[in-house]
Design brief:
This is Response regulatory domain-containing protein. The protein has about 70 residues and is an alpha/beta fold. It has three helices and three strands, in the order βαβαβα.
């Protein structure tokens, strides 16, 4: 399983990624929503762990982007 972890707080992101990797999940951690959208365009993920209260672009732009690209 491969997850995209979208969390701008570095310590929390590192902790979550570490715990997920310990149970065998591959994790790509990113901070801002823009990086998440870029990662989604490059890699196929089984799921996304998403903080919605991101600085700059709202975290809700990520699922909106996924929906738009899935409909193409």
């Amino acid at each position: 399983m491969k997850l995209l972890l979208v969390e701008d707080h570095r310590a929390l992101s590192d902790m979550l990624a570490s715990h997920l990797e310990q149970v065998g999940v591959a994790v790509d951690p990113v901070g801002p929503a823009e990086d998440a959208i870029t990662a989604i365009g490059i890699t196929q993920y089984d799921g996304i762990v998403l903080e919605v209260g991101l600085p700059g672009a709202s975290g809700m732009t990520v699922p909106d982007h996924v929906r738009r690209t899935a409909l193409r």
